[in-house]
Amino acid sequence: MNVPGLHKFLFEGCAVRGAVVRLTAGWQEALRRRASVGEFPLPVRHLLGEMTAAGMLMQSSIKFDGALILQVHGDGPLKLAVAEVKTDYSFRATAKVISDIPPTAGLSTLANTRGEGRCAIVLDARKRARGTQPYQGVVPLHDDAREPLENFSAVIEHYMLQSEQIDTRMVLAANDEVAAGLLLQRMPSAGLGNLAGGREEDLVGYHEDFNRLSLLAGTLAREELLALDVDTLLHRLFWHERLQRFEPVATRFNCSCGRERVTRMLIGLGQVELQDILAEQGRVEIGCDFCGQQYQFDAVDVGEMFTPARDHPPAPSTLQ
To answer: pTM (2 decimals)?
Structure first.
């Protein structure tokens, strides 16, 4: 099972579950599409890859029908980074950069220069009732001692422990060819009784299993995560464990933008502003921040937007 994609597994006899994700062709396509309208700096591309891999791993561990969205709101040169993963494991990612970024910048330099950076985890249900808001959890880009978190995996581990009370070990890495991640999670305690026969002394052993396996996961170097196929990686880390592995799940880049959606967004800007753009530029042109697709609207198109038949409510923008 060396194919790219998402690979889930369980440790037999242990209350620990895991997953490995390896994005190759889809990740390369995401970067290529974005480069058509402007390439992100190297540290931003790598952060987006890690965020996308993290989103894949988190989506795999919950029962949820909708989009899981990770957002880094920065107080440095990176104003915003977004990675969205849907239930079918399609993904997209983008960012807003407002000033120059050093080629070796880490998370603190990118988004937490004044200690005000934060990460939002949003669950937007596919069948969300009208008028209800998506679930959102927010975690700062520092730990409880206000020490900056220097990598995105630490941010997610901190969030899972503080907000969800789930012990989590996550290792992430990305370059321009691969975005990859490894996730280990202690299974909820409600499920431990059957595994351990219900005896308290046995449950203690199951809790220790996660600590032991987490230490092994921590030995995984970034270079190994990027270079090794899934079979080799799991064998190298957990060769002495019995793993129950499941069929891998395909992942893909996919952007949900479209002309109709862009039209609804433009209607939200208002007819007066669009007419001003037409007078100045002769057309309204807008590009998708996620995939680079360009949409053009002339005076006739704008006029049709504001006829009664095209009176649509404005669509919310992820990047506002």
So the answer is: 0.85
